[in-house]
Description:
- There is one protein chain.
- This protein is of the alpha+beta class.
- 29% of the residues lie in helices and 29% in strands.
- Helix 2 (43-62) crosses helix 10 (374-385).
- It is globular.
- It starts with 11 loop residues before the first helix and ends with a helix.
- Residues 212, 244, 246, 255-256, 259, 261, 329-332, 371-373, 375-376 line the site of adenosine-5'-triphosphate.
Amino acid sequence: MSESAASAETTMENLVALSKRRGFIFPSSEIYGGFNGFFDYGPLGSELKKNIRDCWWDDMVRRRDDIVGLESSIIMHPKVWEASGHVDGFTDPLVDCKESKVRYRADQLFFAPVVVEANTVGYVSALESERTTEELQEKAETMKRKKAVQGTLAPVEPKDFTEAREDEYALIPSPATGEPGSLTAPRSFNMMFQTNVGAMTDGSSVAYLRPETAQGMFVDFKNVVDTGRVELPFGIAQIGKSVRNEITPRNFIFRSREFEQMEMEYFIHEDADWEKEHKIWIQWCWDWLKSIGLPESHLSLFDHEKAKLAFYSRGTTDIMFKYPFGVQELWGIAARGNYDLTQHANASGKSHEIFDEATKKKFVPHVIEPAVGVDRIFLAILCAAYAEEEVTDDKGKTETRTVLRLSPRIAPVKVAVLPLLKNKEELTTRAKALYKKLQRRYAVFYDEAGAIGRRYRRQDEIGTPWCVTIDFDTIEKEGDTFTLRERDSMEQKRITEAELLTMLDEHVY
Ligand code: ATP
């Protein structure tokens, strides 16, 4: 169950409000009331998201010699999903409330017997949150009081609904109504979205929208090996949209029905030390998250219990992030053996073996898979970067400044160019010239409206690392220098155009 993690000012309300106010994220189809589990990324959000993708692609693919890229189709042959096991097994346990018609994921619906002096006097339930145990305890106390039962109440022992006994289903209250008797037994719900391809809509035309990008890499493995001049160990990486019919999309963009994944399949020799390779990739992912500005204080590792893994899986470690709603999975790094390639070899009848010159043997490579969601990184970045702080201006006035401490690598705007005054042509002309020059390489913003302090604040709120002000010293003194104002320290210093370009080159990569 989740643990509480929110710092005082980083609440989900604040992040959702900022995202809407400054054009990072909007609810999808908002003018029609929104569409649960779907989101749109606005002008600043689409820039930030692109920067996350670009940094990953550059570091994962372009700056390495052993990894190549791929862009496979979203709708693949339905046999792909039969072979991969998704048609039969990509399910979540679903519970219906017959009364309210609300649906729950059984593993997110918690319950506990209310036990007084070793007697069970009823049941309480609550949805998973960072306060699940406290909420169940409070409900148990209320029940004891209402039923006027004498004696000591035992501390609640929460379980999720998948652990409920059959005779308990009817006794556990529905979170929607607060009354027992309306919850069904859990049943498997397949999360793949179905569609029909072609003019017919009968069973023969059923196809699926991909719930992960990974299968593309397995299905195209032979094509890449035959054409890509790759040698083991090597990886195939892909960034793309995936969709899952999540039963309970929630926590803003953390769990949505349409999201974007960045996945890489790293193929290794069957005799390679997979534990070593697995560790190398866990470290790589950890370091990469740090390189885009996520603080280590918010990161942790979670090793999945071997007994709970799929039979083919050798080990899975998740990098977890402290979101305001608890510590949750950000990035899964799985050692999957040769299961996927073997499944596709068997189902397609096409060999997926590689010939090893050293041993003169053929074998199916094994794989390490780091799989992460762009949207979850986006949310983690917002959570870690958001701050509200008291600042005092030159006139001694104190106010709250909202600031996004984004890494220059992923900030949607790298530099704001600000002429000190709007109606002084020499200032605006010099500012526009600088703006045009920077625009050739960087996302920059030109702003001449309002007091300079207010313009700085507007940039702080969207995470712009630097503001450059073209002032009277620029045009009157020698050296053509500007005021460079740094977002986090708010310090100001003079800088030349050449120095500015060198600084950007160093920090934005
Ligand atoms: P969870 O247990 O949270 O549902 P998962 O273990 O099913 O996630 P994977 O199938 O391993 O997730 O997918 C790889 C990555 O894709 C996850 O680590 C996560 O970052 C992202 N992801 C998965 N499902 C969603 C979703 N519904 N919304 C946003 N991102 C998602």
